[in-house]
Predict the 3D structure of the following.
Amino acid sequence: MQVGIDSFAAAYLEQSRAVSPADRVGELVEQIEHADQVGLDVFGIGEHHRKDYLDSAAAMILAAAAARTRQIRLTSAVAVLSAADPVRLFQQYATLDLLSQGRAEMVVGRGSSIEAFPLFGFRLEDYDALFAEKLELLLEIREHEQVHWSGKFRPALTGQGVYPRPLQNPLPIWLGVGGTPQSFARAGVLGLPLMVAIIGGEPRRFRPLVDLYRDAGRQAGHAPEQLKVGVHALGYVAATTEEAANEFFPGYAAAIASVAKERGWAGATRAGFDAT
Amino acid sequence: MQVGIDSFAAAYLEQSRAVSPADRVGELVEQIEHADQVGLDVFGIGEHHRKDYLDSAAAMILAAAAARTRQIRLTSAVAVLSAADPVRLFQQYATLDLLSQGRAEMVVGRGSSIEAFPLFGFRLEDYDALFAEKLELLLEIREHEQVHWSGKFRPALTGQGVYPRPLQNPLPIWLGVGGTPQSFARAGVLGLPLMVAIIGGEPRRFRPLVDLYRDAGRQAGHAPEQLKVGVHALGYVAATTEEAANEFFPGYAAAIASVAKERGWAGATRAGFDAT
């Protein structure tokens, strides 16, 4: 098992929004450096396009971290592939792979917060079609230096080369999923490693979906060891379970309340929290 | 006067193409670190999308350099704005500005080598219209956190915010020009600092064009101190002028011969070289 940390580069501290964004990003790079020194396996940066987060160009933060670390793997968590150009995204992570001597990974997803769609001129109605097409192109670029490809949402490629090529071949690409069964099945069919985002709800409820992933993968002929599963979840470490829960719950409840308001979810209760 | 170095991150050494791309990029970051230590003012990375260069995602290399340097300014040289999305480009350089505590700059241009156009689905017929429109949007994003804009080559923005915001306000944006008079005039009218690329030909021939820039700027009402001029040119340092010329000319002639073949230029002679 590998253990890592994901960050969305929040633009504020718990107490205040007054922290300087430059200091905040600098501290984040120092945190990644520290994570490398204590032996964590991986550090991921999310992608958002809103005032609250500083991670719209996540690969840039990872590039800075690559220059300060030696062992830790560096990944998107997740890159909003639906709203990106797979050519540019591959170029960035291939460059990250060179900068880090082969420590880059990508987790790509459809995007959980939706502000990237209007910003880059895509329609939410195409939410899944965009992702399917762009994933196809991204995997094509990973496999072939010269790319022949055409689709609906991006100009065709007629043999153009995409450079630089990464040091790792293939560059690891994970599929980031939420709770949509179709996404788990897609990852299995493609034989891609699966990263499950559990940002609320009980982990055990995801078990049938992981089984669906493994079944779809096996039926498509992929070897079991290729069908890796990762979990992105909220975490907090303290001396005892009770201490951790007491320290963590207030901030967690406030964060869930804020997301819940935007997405029409129910809020978090301490009883529900303790049960999971 | 400020002095700096630009690199295109060539994928090969003079002797061989066999160098590892990861080692080459690593050495480049070390060179930027060294340039910072000896007190150079600025380091720039170009943008190409071909096998010979490793700089397609130039901002990534600059981000790695930001984490290893303290004083030196870091810039694109040039970013091919015509084929880029100004939103993504601004996000990257704003992030670079945060990572470097306010040392980012951008030099944006129409692009000298043209492989970016088919790769990103743009037409060479739109060479100048693309640049004019994207420059307008880029400056709009620099000026306003929430952007209202519409154009021909990119979906409209109807008040979306572009984040993160850079530490420097305004983030320095230079206009990179070759030999086109219209480009010099445009930079003057907009009051943008000018970066003149002299990759062949005699520097003194550019004087009338620089005068054109300054006249256009003055007429548009910009203060003279705002109308800064930079030169990007080939350079080589040795103990004496003759030594420098003898060591530099063979490689220069070979490089010019290679570009000349592609673009239908004349090659370089030693007599012409010594005269400039």
